[in-house]
From TrEMBL:
Function: Involved in cytoskeletal rearrangements required for phagocytosis of apoptotic cells and cell motility. Acts in association with DOCK1 and CRK. Was initially proposed to be required in complex with DOCK1 to activate Rac Rho small GTPases. May enhance the guanine nucleotide exchange factor (GEF) activity of DOCK1.
Organism this protein belongs to: Nestor notabilis (Kea)
Keywords annotated in UniProt: Apoptosis, Phagocytosis, SH3-binding
Database matches in PROSITE patterns: ELMO
Pfam families, A to Z: ELMO_ARM, ELMO_CED12, PH_12
Segments forming domain ELMO: 263-436
Membrane-spanning residues: none
PANTHER family named among the record's database cross-references: ENGULFMENT AND CELL MOTILITY, ENGULFMENT AND CELL MOTILITY PROTEIN 3
Single GO BP term: actin filament organization
Gene3D superfamilies per record: 6.10.250.810, Leucine-rich Repeat Variant, Pleckstrin-homology domain (PH domain)/Phosphotyrosine-binding domain (PTB)
Protein origin, superkingdom: Eukaryota
GO molecular function: SH3 domain binding
Protein's name in the database: Engulfment and cell motility protein 3
Length: 671
């Protein structure tokens, strides 16, 4: 009676067994006989319309758990069950257990994507919003309501605008401040969904508003440093929040400097004035325009601009565009002492050894944008946020201030000249990324660690990493490796055939049950015949004479493994053990009429036997074991061959062969 009854898993998600998923039943799963999904859907459909509140609540509870199953959900939705759920929410005034079950059932039914979110009525959405905005309502209802809204927001612009208007940011911030972790999580999910669905201008306004409400300090204190460990989901939302915040810099990063904008020119001049104010202004007042212009050019050169007569040209490259200018101005205004020290120290160094401030700043800004993925869309799964990001206002600018001083420090350590500019910044990039990977909790800690990781430390780290790779990656070593391969493969082949000559004990598997009948198979010493036969328990290596059956190797046609074997096909009625499939192989022989079927005792034996039989058939050895054995032998052989070359660098190209001597009349006198 398929229309009345069905099978269903007892444990976990109680999924119904259907034609499409019956192949997934695992051996050992417990099933129960139950009413069929369409009967159950019919019963619950009438149950949730009952006037008796107990019956109604029970039906909704059952509905919430069964709706996870796709077969049931389809049946229920086909009966227009969602309309009934809408009715309960829109018309009901209950805010207790019944409502929680209703919303849970609704969420589960929507998960299956049979129905679009855009079909929801305004009245239903208003009701859901009201649960979020109510103060006295059960936390589980608020969680579900926030979850429903979070799923609605990305689906259409209309729903986004509706939710954004009805659920204020203040309300979401209030939900973030509760002690209930789940509620906090759902509020955070809705907040990030709103931010991601917003346009650039809306996002900027929302972030500005949140900044005014000190959300950063709150997250840093109550979420990152709370007593509860941070879950993966919350880590992802914090990553999104960090990513959205940093991407607010994208607009400035992609805008090149406009030499005709007075505001931008003033910013440039302020850099020069802050550095050289006292010495130049007094003298410059009496100079002619021409003289003053050459003085400015000289000062811009000291600041490290490549194009000193028109420094705006240096900032035409976008990215980093105006973001580099913003960073330089921030550094000069917020840490004027460090700024003056940097510029004056380098303008008084002997030629070629000065570190150019402006050029370094522009390149460093670009490096930071790449490391922090500014201007890249949010990943949907990443959880890599920096705890120190939430511990600091103006994070990007403050990070720049630390790193630009690091550039100067590294420059001195490397005793660099202008030609080494790219090298220095490569080292600085490495110092920053290595320090960020340690996830420092504050910028202060970042500063201490990044300064401790000086140039000599970087060299040591590079050296050890290179040693790990060098041996195996140099061109001559790779050539040697290729040359050694055939010889070592032959060694592996010999080992496989020797193993077949020793033979192995196999078990017989019958269709009724696993019987402990044993049989033995081995290869004759001349590699011409396979001998096999039944043996008693306890016999370990029977002599060849005691094995009655044999197959000449010349009659062997092919080797089958796994699902292709006849003895696994017979029993593939859903009960077939996966581990048996991994260990099964068969030999087809005698005009492809007969098969000898094996179930190897272990994966190791399976690899050795399939390799050995492939060698006998003249084919490649294909098991995973071949590769690992070959790698072990190769690395041992290479290490032995390279022992004499300790600390000698191997050139990529062979040295030239010297010319032949002018005469060959020389010999060694052995007397």
């Amino acid at each position: 009676n398929a229309e009345h009854y069905a099978l269903q898993y007892v444990d976990g998600r109680q999924t119904y067994i259907t034609e499409s998923n019956r192949g997934d039943i695992k051996n050992g799963s417990i099933l129960q006989l139950t009413t069929s999904p369409d009967q159950e859907a019919e019963r619950l459909y009438s149950g949730i319309q009952s006037n008796n509140s107990d019956v109604k609540t029970d039906s909704l509870k059952k509905l919430a758990s069964l709706s996870q199953d796709v077969t049931f959900a389809q049946e229920f939705i086909n009966r227009n069950g969602l309309k009934q759920i809408f009715y309960i929410v829109e018309e009901g005034n209950d805010i207790g257990e019944m409502l929680a079950h209703t919303l849970k059932a609704f969420m589960e039914l929507m998960e299956h994507d049979f129905v679009s979110w855009e079909t929801l009525s305004a009245a239903f959405i208003k009701k859901i919003v009201s649960y979020v905005n109510m103060s006295v309502v059960d936390a589980s209802i608020q969680q579900l309501s926030l979850s429903i809204l979070e799923n609605m927001v990305p689906t259409s612009r209309l729903l986004f605008e509706l939710v954004k208007k009805e659920v204020t940011l203040d309300r979401l911030l209030a939900h973030l401040q509760v002690t209930n972790v789940q509620l906090q999580l759902k509020a955070m999910a809705l907040l990030t969904a709103l931010l991601l669905a917003a346009t650039d201008a809306e996002r900027r306004d929302m972030m500005e508003y949140l900044r005014g409400k000190n959300i950063r300090q709150f997250i840093h204190k109550n979420i990152i440093h709370s007593s509860e460990p941070l879950g993966d989901e919350m880590a992802h939302y914090l990553y999104v929040l960090q990513s959205v915040s940093l991407n607010l810099c994208e607009r400035r990063m992609r805008t090149s400097m406009d030499p005709y904008s007075q505001e931008q020119r003033d910013l440039l001049q302020s850099l020069r004035q802050t550095a050289f104010e006292s010495e130049s202004e007094t003298a410059a007042s009496s100079f002619s325009t021409e003289r003053r212009r050459s003085l400015c050019a000289k000062e811009f050169r000291k600041l490290g601009f490549m194009n000193n007569s028109n420094p705006a040209e240096d900032l035409r490259r976008a990215p980093p565009g105006l973001l580099a200018l913003d960073n330089m101005v921030y550094f000069s205004r917020h840490t004027p002492n460090a700024y003056s020290r940097f510029v004056l120290e380098n303008s008084s160094r002997e030629d070629k050894h000065e570190c150019p401030f402006a050029r370094s700043s522009i390149q460093l800004t670009l490096i930071l944008c790449e490391i922090l993925h500014i201007g890249e869309p949010c990943s949907e799964t990443a959880q890599a946020f920096y705890p120190m990001f939430f511990g600091q206002d103006h994070f990007f600018e403050e990070l720049f201030c630390i790193c630009i001083q690091l550039v100067n420090k590294t420059w001195k350590e490397m005793r660099a000249t202008q030609e080494d500019f790219d090298k220095v910044l490569q080292v600085v990039r490495e110092q920053i990324t290595r320090t960020l990977s340690l996830k420092p909790t504050s910028l202060e800690l970042f500063k201490i660690r990044v300064n401790a990781l000086n140039y000599s430390e970087i060299l040591k780290l590079r050296q050890t990493e290179r040693l790990h790779q060098e041996e195996t990656l140099a061109v001559p070593v790779l050539e040697l490796r290729e040359r050694l391969k055939p010889e070592l493969l032959e060694l592996v082949r010999q080992q496989r055939l020797l193993h077949l000559c020793e033979g192995t004990l196999f078990r017989k598997i019958s269709s009724r049950r696993r019987q402990d009948k044993l049989w033995y198979c081995r290869l004759s010493p001349n590699h011409k015949v396979l001998h096999y036969g039944d043996v008693e328990e306890g016999v370990h290596s029977p002599p060849i004479e005691s094995l009655p059956e044999k197959i000449p190797i010349v009659d062997m046609k092919m080797l089958l493994v796994g699902k292709e074997c006849p003895h696994t096909k017979e029993k593939s009625s859903g009960k077939q053990n996966k581990d048996v499939l991994e260990l099964a192989f068969s030999i087809v022989y005698d005009m492809e009429e007969y098969c000898l079927n094996f179930i190897a005792p272990t994966r190791y034996e399976f690899c050795l036997w399939t390799d050995g039989l492939n060698v006998l058939l003249g084919k490649e050895m294909t098991s995973e074991r071949t590769q690992t054995d070959l790698d072990v032998l190769l690395s041992m052989e290479l290490k032995l061959r390279l022992l004499d070359l300790e600390n000698i660098s191997i050139p990529d190209a062979p040295p030239p062969i010297p010319k032949a001597p002018s005469n060959l009349n020389f010999c060694y006198d052995f007397s």
